[in-house]
Amino acid sequence: MIRRYSHTQPNPRLSSNLVKRAEEGKTGEEPPEHDFMPRKLLVVLPSYNEEIALSRLFPQFEQLAERLEENLQLLVVDDGSRDGTSAVAQGWRGSIPVEVHQFPENRGYGAALEAGVSQAARQLSAEDLIATMDADDTHPPSYLQGMVQMLDEQEMDVVIASRFAPGAREEGVPWHRMLLSRGASWFYRSAFDLPQVRDYSCGYRLFKAGLIQKSLQQHQSLNLGAGFYATGELLLRLRQQTVKFAEVPFELHYERKPTASKMPKIATVLGTLRFLHRVRKQVKKHR
Predict the structure, then answer these.
(1) What is the C-alpha to C-alpha distance for residues 76 and 96, in angstroms, rounded to an integer?
(2) Cα separation, 39 vs 35, whole angstroms
(3) How many CB atoms lie within 10 A of CB 278?
(4) Contact at 8 Å (CB) between 86 and 76?
(5) The domain that contains 233 carries what CATH number?
(6) Which helix (H) or strand (E) holds 275?
(7) Cβ(224)–Cβ(110) under 8 Å?
(8) Could you tell me the pTM of the whole model?
(9) Which DSSP state fits 241?
(10) Nearest C-alpha neighbor of 120 from the set 102, 101, 137, 140
(11) N or C: which end of the chain has fewer CB within 10 A?
């Protein structure tokens, strides 16, 4: 059973903008319909024992909302946390709507990611946007503004916050994680046939909801594995729907992470290799 909680506070910025646009439309040419219905941006946050990190992230999202034209919403998927992760999310009383899905037990990162992305796709329109990012305060929400801009200006369907794009940086990352992420990038690039993508394992992404909606229509579920290699599996689901990918460089600050890593290294490596073994045939099929 998944427990769901949500609360919505009025967003004065959006309300005032809509009133202003409506008043402007009275004396001039009638504004486009989408001016009255802002595009939604729903951020999915798979979380496991992240009460400290979430309390840091929410104020950053509030600052981001002031600069976005999109209607920003948050979906926290609590993967059976033993701390106050759900309580922090349920208790937030800012202007951004926050919904919480709570698993009664830990099911793994991939299960939380799939539950959040699938739910987001079901409650959004095709042109609305979904973002996924880590909830451990290592992915600054501020990058979303530039990612949305790139998606629109370059007519992309998917934008990835990349650790390997020119201008990117990694701070405080243990050597074994850097080695794992670079090795994974090499294997993924050889399998996915996406020359413009360098970072396949970072979970910080922005994409159109319609891509997930099409995948769910075709397969009923995303069928992601439970492990951290689910980030690659989700990228494949997107790859099956589009080749319009782009990257923006970002700075990963691993030293901001308030808790120890939950990623089982050996299981992640083995799961990734098994997944990549199947990728080539699937990519060729959907070209």
Answers:
(1) 13
(2) 9
(3) 12
(4) yes
(5) 3.90.550.10
(6) helix 265-285
(7) yes
(8) 0.79
(9) T
(10) 101
(11) N
Residues β-bridged to residue 2: none
- Nearest-angstrom CA–CA distance, 56 and 59: 6
Tokens found for residue 117: 């992305």
Question: Per the structure block, which two tokens stand in for 52?
Answer: 């400290």
> Which spans in 100-254 are helix H?
109-123, 143-153, 175-192, 209-219, 230-239
CB of 173 closer than 8 Å to CB of 95: no
Question: What SS3 class is residue 183?
Answer: helix
Element (H, E) at 171: strand 169-171
- Take residue 213 and report the two structure tokens written for it: 């909606």
Per-residue pLDDT of the chain (287 residues), as tens digits, is 455 556 554 444 444 444 343 444 444 444 444 445 789 999 999 999 999 999 999 999 999 999 999 999 999 999 999 999 999 999 998 999 999 999 999 999 999 999 999 999 999 999 999 999 999 999 999 999 999 999 999 999 999 999 888 998 777 666 566 666 666 666 677 666 677 888 888 899 999 999 999 999 998 899 888 777 788 889 989 999 999 999 999 988 777 666 655 555 555 555 555 555 555 555 554 45
**Number of separate domains in the chain:** 1
67: DSSP letter: T
